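sorry for the late reply, my laptop died twice this morning and i had to redo everyting from scratch. anyway the thing you sent over, i finally got around to it. pasting the sequence first so we're on the same page, its 274 residues, then the predicted structure underneath. double check i copied it right bc i was rushing
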Amino acid sequence: MWRGLYTAASGMITETKRTDTLANNLANANTAGYKRDEAINREFEPMLIKRINDGTVRGDVTSFKGFHVGDNRPTVGTLGLGSYIDEIQTNHEQGGFQTTGNPLDLAISGDGYFAIQTPQGVRYTRNGSFFKSANGELQTVNGQRVLARGGQGGINIPADAVNITIGAQGQVWVRQAGQDGQNQIGQLEFVSFGPDPRAVLKQGESLYYPQQGAQPQPATGTIEQGVLEASNTNVVSEMVSLINNYRVYEAGSKAVTTQDSLLDKAVNEVGRLS
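ok and here's the structure:
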């Protein structure tokens, strides 16, 4: 009975963590460049159980006309011992594009990340909602510097820039007041980490950090100017999953209640001395 309590409780803990993951996906449904997470659960190693009294007495119910099962106890089957969250996996599927018309809004089509300077070091993002700071530096919404190619510094936009054009590979051109043509002032650090989706892990605030040994390389995707990549979270699908998750949690709760009731009867009624 104790095992039944632990098994049902482990299922409830698993569904609680899955609820947190689904809720986070829904909370970021409108976050540019957000990639939804999925909680992958795994079963604890099941226990093989056998009939414990078979094979000990030659006159038991398993003996018939001289035939006996032998000393090997018959197998009943396996007993599940609960589940747990094995990993939180990120779905890197491409999100849709939303046109904004802002020349500093950038979306990535295909594989790639922008490099961002943070207090923890260089981090990477697909959220291309950038702004020009008071001193002309290209920054994220959190005031973090968007790095230029080679990671040697940021992109500084002249105060008299009247037109900004950003190319497919991150080249930045500006036309300044009184000039007819455009001048290239830099190029964004636009990198990839190969086909392995686990090469980068989420840090929070739309930032990723590379796993140990993962090295940035030139991105294979392209940059689109004046648009943002929407979150790849499907709100309807997440809500359906959330409702289903609640039902599973409720079933686990009822199982715990039932096991507790059986244990109560075993202790207070079956075990009562007459």
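Residues 168 and 223 are 4 Å apart (CA to CA).
thats about all i looked at so far, will dig more tmrw
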